[in-house]
Design goal:
Layout (H helix, E strand, L loop, with lengths): L4 E10 L2 E11 L4 E5 L6 H8 L7 E6 L2 E4 L5 H4 L2 E4 L10 H11 L4 H14 L15 H14 L4 E5 L7 H18 L2 E5 L3 H7 L2 E6 L2 E7 L10 H24 L1
Parallel strand pairs: 3-8, 3-9, 6-7, 7-8
Antiparallel strand pairs: 1-2, 1-4, 4-5, 9-10
Helix pairs in contact: 3-4, 3-5, 4-5
Amino acid sequence: MKIMLDLQDITVIKRNKKIVSVQELTVKPGKVIGLIGPNGAGKSSLLKLMALLENPTTGIIHFNDLQVFPGKVNLTERRKVSVVFQQPLMLDTTVYNNVAIGLKFRKTPKKVIKETVFYWLKQFGIDHLVEDRAKNLSGGEAQRLSIARAMATNPEILFLDEPFSALDLPTRRKLLKDFQQILKETGTTTIFISHDYHEVRYLCEDIILMFEGKMVDYGKVEELPFKRFTNDVNQFLDEWMTPLIDEDRIEKAMT
């Protein structure tokens, strides 16, 4: 099977401190992968490397069998990647223009832009807001718009940095359900950071565990609860999984 992203012997050093250390990490097409770890574990730094936004200090990165580090990422490869951040980055214009911007940069024909924008706004249930100003959207609407914009350019790989964490529980659950269906339909390779076990278990097949800058595990989500690591890592995982266990108990008690 084709390898979409391959990292070998990666380190990131800032202010004389090693903040990321990954010996080997391979991502195959169509995978949905959760990236977890406590605050300061190096998750965001690793995501930026994989998304071709930053370079490591040392190591080798291949994207679609093309070596992009050491080397220079060309515009063609960079445009195959989309990134969604925790706080939606909105242009001060209409919802339509926010989704259309990436397509315009790619010199997409106007008719195709219109069809694509309306398709993705409808997929995320916000097509009725097409002429609204993006700055006036609610948190849930803005995040739906942000993901719709990312998907509109048909990325080969999508990165998300805690995209649902700022949303209230009902909004988050609805968006998760819609997003899961869209990923099934598109088969888009996806890597996202989350502090929520429910999100990761719901969306992901595989999971990357970061701790103190090191990738300590990369495997199946369902296998993680049965693995044992150092005491510090075990404590983090126990605390990370507890809210979902409590939530499951509450839901069962209500049914």
